[in-house]
Every structure is written in C-alpha cells, then in structure tokens.
C-alpha cells in the first residue's frame, strides 16, 4: 500500500477510535508525515514532518503508534491535536494540581486526585491527563470508566505512558 492509502485508512481508524474529525486532526492532508513500518510493511508509527530514517537521525515528533490491536496510542503531538480538535471534557481526565509534578514525570494518575472527567471514557481508552485549565500533563490508558474515576477514592485512574514536561 502507498502512504496515501495508508493515511486514508489511518484517518478512518482514528475517526472510529476518537470520533468524527480525529483522523483529519491527527493527520492533516496538507502536512507531511513519515510512516514507519513494521518488518511486514504494516504502519507502526506516524511521525510529524519528513524524517530522515538514517541511523542517528532525529526521531521527529511522534503523532501516534498504531498497535497490532488496531488501536492508536498517542504521542505528545497527537495528544495536543486531539485536545485541540475536541472541546473539553472529551477524551480528558482532569487531575488536581497536587498530582501535576508526578504525572508530568510519567507516574500514573490516581482516582483520588481526579476532579473532572469525560464520563464517556471506558477502561482501555486512550486519554489526555490535564489540569482544570486544560494544560496537558500526560497521555495514557484509562484503567477506570469516567464515572468510576470520579467516584473512587483509590486506584489508578490512568496508566500514564508519557508525561509532558511543560506547557506548550
């Protein structure tokens, strides 16, 4: 498959996972991207911009990784794009400021610190961890539903995959 055919399929998958419009937000048609492939030729990572694939070259900005399960995991660039495409509270788990330094370091977000949430979140969903001002702290996988994350006083609400070091 060509990159353009793969991008069309990736856009469709993103719309399915995140909602209508996510594919265009993650992979704008007028922006160059680099698709890194598995040894079998399947798209594995999508990087913003044209990236030189020679050893030692810049990694670029990872938008997403496309898993063998057909689901995307977001990089920081992808998280910011999803956050910009969908209004609050979509795809977000809001945590209090006492969690900020830990979550930014990549530590998990615990339910007792959740102050607001997209109640449509299901366990396993890819989510953004933000503060009350919608500043991105981290990206990860929801371990609890939205309503559980708000109601529970203990347990991991989001298994953080990538902490975000500072404001954009």
Structure report:
The chain is α+β, with helices and mostly antiparallel strands. Helix content is 25%, strand content 30%. The protein has 5 helices and 10 strands. The chain has helices at residues 3-18, 22-26, 76-85, 100-104, 146-151, and strands at residues 33-37, 43-48, 61-66, 72-74, 92-95, 109-110, 114-117, 126-130, 136-142, 156-163. The chain has a 6-stranded mixed sheet. It has a 4-stranded antiparallel sheet with strand order 1-2-3-4. Strand 8 (126-130) and strand 9 (136-142) form a beta hairpin.
What is the radius of gyration computed over CA atoms, rounded to a whole number of angstroms? Answer: 16 Å
Helix fraction by DSSP (H/I, runs of at least 4) = 25-40%
Largest sheet: 6 strands, mixed
Spatial gap, N to C terminus? 35 Å
What's the total number of strands?
A: 10
Shape: elongated
Helix segment count? 5
Taken in chain order, the helices and strands follow as HHEEEEHEHEEEEHE
Strand order across the largest sheet: 6-10-9-8-5-7
Residue fraction in strands: 25-35%
Class derived from helix and strand content: alpha+beta
Low-confidence stretches: 54-58
Oligomer description: single chain
Average pLDDT works out at 91
């Amino acid at each position: 498959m060509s990159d353009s055919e793969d991008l069309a399929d990736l856009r469709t998958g993103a719309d399915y996972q995140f909602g209508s419009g996510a594919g265009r937000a993650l992979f704008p048609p007028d922006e160059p991207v680099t698709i890194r492939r598995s040894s079998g030729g399947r798209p594995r990572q999508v990087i913003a911009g044209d990236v030189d694939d020679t050893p030692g070259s810049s990694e670029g900005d990872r938008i997403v990784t496309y898993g063998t399960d057909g689901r995307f995991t977001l990089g920081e660039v992808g998280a910011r794009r999803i956050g910009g495409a969908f209004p609050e509270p979509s795809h977000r788990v809001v945590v209090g400021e006492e969690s900020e330094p830990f979550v930014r370091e990549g530590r998990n977000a615990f339910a007792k610190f959740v102050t607001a949430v997209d109640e449509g979140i299901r366990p396993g969903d890819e989510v953004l961890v933000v503060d009350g001002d919608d500043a991105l702290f981290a990206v990860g996988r929801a371990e609890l539903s939205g309503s559980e994350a708000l109601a529970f006083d203990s347990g991991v609400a989001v298994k953080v995959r990538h902490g975000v070091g500072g404001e954009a």
